[in-house]
Design the sequence.
């Protein structure tokens, strides 16, 4: 999530009838990447073939909720649908996720291929929805037991802790994963997460046993934010799902901010916004750089943890030399030749007609009139 100009705290009613499915894809022009040879970096035998774009029309609503802020998604192979988390902090409506259907039967994504078919409100253990400002949901992952693991960035400014929690498919919270004390915000801002730079990601390994999440940038006591000159040491957290136990932590260094803002005093950032395991110790990482007056730069990396050091015992990384995770560029989305929005979600999807696995990306429009919810489809060659 990028900073917003204002916070809306009006909460809509929860008990609403479910309308018919809503088609939300806006018309998009023909895309030169569709059907073209795979666009790839040196991502260790990974190549991504761009198969098209759909845009959810601004102002789309479902069940009296505004569809937006879609910052993460997960695929339910059993039902053939995606669950997309909204990062609305219970401002426009109670915290929620949407069920989306993507029609990729022809191996491409284009006009009218994205449909909202349901909305589910997140509920605390007592059955109540989350009050405004108490949650900042950012990503969502489906376990083999058909439970949802959802991350929240919290709010460092108001001392609301980030979390990793387990929910049923009906939205009820049933478990809570421990977040180490060094991650928790402090009143004097001497340690813990930075505001809006905490747990953006959630991904489950192919064996179903492990959840990975990570901070978007460094903890306060670990080092500086990403700048034009240097990246930031984010921490990756590895959880044992069955036992809701934190197993280890690793350092993932982001890239520097890609471009100088215009004007030079404007806002600029780069951070780790999603993780998608492709093996039990290998992941895809999504980095999003944004510079005011310039726009977004999106890159996908292959991450190898084989040589990375577990840094769980270190409350601070400053002054320490540690073995960081290895990363290799798979794709710089600038090569696609399209205008990129605030892409924050990354997930495998259904097998395409040609037998290749699909990869779907989604952007968080921040509920801003100047942004859009963008869905991108790729075929994965391995």
Sequence:
């Amino acid at each position: 999530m990028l900073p917003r100009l204002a916070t809306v705290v009006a909460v809509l009613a929860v008990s609403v009838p479910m309308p018919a499915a809503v088609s939300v894809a806006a018309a998009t022009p023909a895309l030169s990447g569709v059907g073209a040879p795979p666009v790839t970096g040196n991502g260790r035998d990974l190549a991504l073939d761009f198969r098209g774009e759909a845009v959810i029309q601004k102002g789309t609503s479902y069940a009296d909720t505004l569809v937006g802020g879609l910052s993460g998604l997960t695929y339910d192979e059993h039902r053939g649908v995606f669950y997309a988390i909204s990062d609305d902090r219970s401002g426009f409506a109670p915290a929620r996720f949407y069920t989306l259907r993507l029609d990729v039967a022809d191996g491409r994504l284009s006009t009218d291929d994205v449909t909202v078919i349901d909305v589910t409100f997140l509920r605390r253990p007592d059955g109540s929805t989350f009050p405004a400002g108490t949650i900042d949901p950012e990503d969502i992952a489906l376990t083999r037991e058909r439970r949802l693991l959802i991350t929240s960035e919290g709010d460092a400014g108001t001392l609301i802790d980030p979390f990793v929690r387990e929910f049923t498919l009906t939205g009820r919270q049933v478990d809570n994963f421990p977040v180490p004390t060094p991650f928790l915000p402090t009143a004097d801002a001497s340690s813990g997460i930075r505001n809006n730079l905490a747990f953006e990601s959630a991904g489950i390994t192919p064996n179903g046993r492990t959840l990975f999440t990570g901070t978007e940038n460094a903890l306060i006591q670990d080092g500086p934010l990403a700048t034009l000159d240097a990246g930031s040491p984010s921490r990756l957290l590895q959880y044992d799902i069955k036992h809701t136990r934190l197993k280890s932590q690793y350092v993932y260094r982001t890239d520097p901010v890609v471009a100088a803002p215009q004007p030079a005093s404007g806002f600029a950032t780069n951070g780790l916004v999603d993780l998608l395991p492709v093996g039990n110790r290998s992941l895809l990482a999504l980095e999003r750089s944004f510079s005011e007056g310039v726009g977004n730069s999106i890159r996908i990396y292959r991450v190898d943890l084989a040589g990375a050091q577990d840094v769980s015992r270190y409350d601070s990384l400053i002054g320490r030399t540690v073995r960081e995770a290895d990363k290799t560029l798979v794709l710089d989305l600038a090569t696609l030749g399209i205008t990129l929005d605030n892409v924050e979600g990354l997930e495998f999807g259904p097998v395409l007609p040609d037998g290749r696995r699909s990869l779907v990306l989604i952007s968080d429009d921040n509920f801003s009139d100047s942004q859009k919810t963008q869905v991108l489809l790729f075929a994965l060659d391995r």
